Amino acid sequence: MTTWLTDEERVAWVRLAAVLELLPGVLDTQLRRDADLSHFEYFVLAMLSEAPERTLRMTSLAARTNATLPRLSHVVRRLEDRGLVRRFPCPQDGRATNAQLTESGWATVEAAAPGHVANVRHQVIDALDAEQVRQLAGITEAILGRIDPDGVVMAPQRN
Amino acid sequence: MTTWLTDEERVAWVRLAAVLELLPGVLDTQLRRDADLSHFEYFVLAMLSEAPERTLRMTSLAARTNATLPRLSHVVRRLEDRGLVRRFPCPQDGRATNAQLTESGWATVEAAAPGHVANVRHQVIDALDAEQVRQLAGITEAILGRIDPDGVVMAPQRN
DNA sequence: GCCTGTTGGTTGAAGCTACAAGTAAGACCG
DNA sequence: CGGTCTTACTTGTAGCTTCAACCAACAGGC
């Protein structure tokens, strides 16, 4: 037996689905235009820029960016070809690879960040009042509790 | 000058970004497994199933599904290859193409819908209380006001 | 030291989306 | 009518993601 959605639930879902469909494109377009990066590439560089030594192991980087390992491997290879990232084997574990932000990569993130933040603010945050921002944090936390039960994304990052 | 995000804003944004990254995959996986459809393909079939005569012009269908025309053209061709949709030139306008759901396509949507709705309910709606569902409708409405100013998605569909 | 299994990562092929270009029909105008 | 513009699609190509192998390095038992 199927429990259908009530009118209120349906409205909320249809709109959320529309946001899911449209927002990534809006974010990608600005970053692609201003920094020649996809949102995911930007996020990879941003995670590296916040890490100690600007270095992370591929597995750890994949966890923080919600990526599969193959996806990350392809993306980092392309970023490496562009000179934004450097890869080298991990001294402690011969299986592991470290990815490190280069000077050029750091400069790229620094240059891209203000525009990206301004875009997020303009498209999302400024559309909401302070109360809604708090509500959004609660709602997304609840949803992530379902779709990311291990808390890979939200967990206090170790390593 | 850049206005950075406050802590509350940053938390809300990071979580929303995570939902944006993870939720589409969760929805796709279930539909792919149970009905061999992507979420977008399912949505195309669903829009057709609700239209009069189960028929829509490509342009109208593209608007309802938030797709570019090239993307829709490719997807409908694949659905046509699978016998779920039929295309024929519009009698009123020689430039236009009508897409119509076949019997097989209708059966496919009917079969897929309950599982999909159950998945949406399980992953999203049931994670929230009634108050949060209302809040989510308001929040997504506000965001769509920014990223979809023409209301293409939300407008009462004409035609 | 081997064997087995696990972990960490890379690679190649397949499929989907976006962008750019092209086609064809309608609309407007003299 | 002829010319030009717009609309409605389709098609081809490039780039990214996914999936399925694959390989190398570690770890534990014997």
Could you please describe the fold and organization of this structure?
Two copies of one chain form a homodimer. Chain A has 159 residues and is mostly helical. In chain A, 63% of the residues lie in helices and 8% in strands. Chain A has a three-stranded antiparallel sheet with strand order 1-3-2. In chain A, helix 1 runs antiparallel to helix 5. The longest helix of chain A has 29 residues. Chain A is globular. In chain A, 33% of the residues are buried. The C terminus of chain A is likely disordered. Chains A and B meet through helix 1, helix 5 and helix 6 of A and helix 1, helix 5 and helix 6 of B. The structure holds a DNA duplex (30 and 30 nucleotides).
Short summary:
Chain A is built from 6 helices and 3 strands, in the order H-H-E-H-H-E-E-H-H. The first copy, chain A, is mostly helical and 159 residues long.
